[in-house]
């Protein structure tokens, strides 16, 4: 029998069965708090405005909240994997007014001769689709990366910048493929197409980084020499260029500046190269 029974006599019959200390509600709230919250991509990004170095317009872009997104791992080729979001999608900044596009680390750096080339060859002709999505879809992200690459070619950008765009484009294709695999959209044709594109970008990234390593200094695209050598080693092993892959591994293992984490990664890569060579014989 409830302590409040009898309230109906006071005209408060609806309140007769109230839980005095709200225990049931507290238990419910506690249960809710323990349920894992589903992280949504839209909550992990924000709108930021950049200044276009080509035409001086304000450039809106969606940027990942690095402090909020949780890193859950990295692929062998250093592609980062975050919970609930593919960070790679959010790195290309595109000016809707003139079409100038670059990955964020290169975006502000544009000389006036380069701006002139972009105005002539890109701004004059480009038609930018007007997406209204809350997040960048893979289709939209792929277009942004293609524009970044063509901009880098038109402005005669460094080999390292083009290689870096190709590397990240390969990661984008991988993320795209992973996102459609085991869904209705993941037809065998699409999966095969995305895989083929990833391979082509990997080949181009490799060529560009080989050239950049010969002609440019470090840091390169924010990476030190050890990191670039490691990445080249991974790409070379993937492309079955075992002489180059082994040379990169040795240079890391004998380096006095490589930290233990990099040396461990290099040792894993060395084992993999030896296994691959054995299996390919
Ligand atoms: Zn612009």
What's the arrangement of secondary structure elements?
Elements (H helix, E strand, L loop, with lengths): L22 H12 L10 E7 L6 E7 L6 E4 L5 E3 L9 E3 L6 E3 L8 H12 L14 H17 L4 H22 L7 H28 L9 H14 L3 H12 L6 H21 L1
Helix pairs in contact: 3-4, 4-5, 5-6, 6-7, 6-8, 7-8
The structure holds zinc ion.
Zinc ion binds next to loops.
Write a concise keyword list for the protein shown above.
single chain, 281 residues, mainly alpha, two-stranded antiparallel sheet, 6 strands, binds zinc ion
Small molecules (ligands, ions, cofactors) in the structure = zinc ion
Structural class: mainly alpha
**What share of residues is helical?**
40-55%
- Main beta sheet, described? 2 strands, antiparallel
How many structural domains are formed by the residues?
A: 3
- Average predicted local confidence, pLDDT: 94
Give unreliable regions as ranges. Answer: none
Q: What is the percentage of strand-forming residues?
A: 5-15%
Radius of gyration: 26 Å
Largest beta sheet: strand ordering: 1-2
> Could you give the count of β-strands?
6
Instruction: Count every helix, treating DSSP H or I runs of 4 or more residues as helices.
Output: 8
3D shape:
extended
Order of helices and strands: HEEEEEEHHHHHHH
User: Termini separation (Å)?
Assistant: 83 Å
């Amino acid at each position: 029998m409830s302590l409040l029974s009898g309230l109906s006599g006071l005209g408060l019959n609806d309140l007769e069965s109230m839980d005095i200390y709200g225990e049931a509600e507290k238990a419910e709230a506690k249960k809710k708090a323990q349920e894992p919250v589903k992280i949504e991509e839209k909550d992990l990004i924000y709108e930021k405005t950049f200044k276009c170095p080509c035409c001086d317009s304000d450039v809106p872009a969606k940027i990942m909240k690095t402090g909020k997104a949780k890193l859950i791992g990295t692929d062998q080729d250093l592609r980062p994997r975050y919970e609930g979001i593919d960070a790679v999608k959010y790195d290309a900044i595109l000016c809707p007014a003139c079409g100038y596009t670059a990955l964020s680390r290169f975006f502000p750096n544009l000389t006036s001769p380069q701006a002139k080339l972009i105005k002539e060859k890109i701004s004059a002709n480009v038609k930018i689709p007007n997406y209204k999505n809350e997040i960048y879809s893979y289709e939209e992200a792929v277009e942004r990366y293609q524009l970044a690459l063509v901009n880098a070619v038109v402005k005669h950008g460094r080999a390292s910048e083009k290689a870096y765009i190709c590397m990240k484009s390969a990661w984008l294709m991988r993320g795209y493929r992973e996102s459609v695999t085991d869904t209705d959209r993941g037809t065998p044709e699409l999966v095969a197409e995305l895989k083929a594109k990833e391979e082509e970008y990997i080949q181009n990234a490799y060529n560009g980084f080989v050239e950049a390593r010969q002609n440019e200094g470090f840091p390169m695209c924010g990476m030190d020499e050890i990191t670039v050598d490691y990445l080249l080693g991974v790409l070379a092993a993937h492309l079955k260029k075992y002489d180059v892959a082994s040379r990169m591994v040795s240079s890391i293992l004998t380096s006095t500046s490589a930290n233990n984490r990099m040396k461990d990664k290099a040792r894993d890569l060395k084992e993999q190269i030896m296994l691959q060579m054995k299996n390919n014989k």
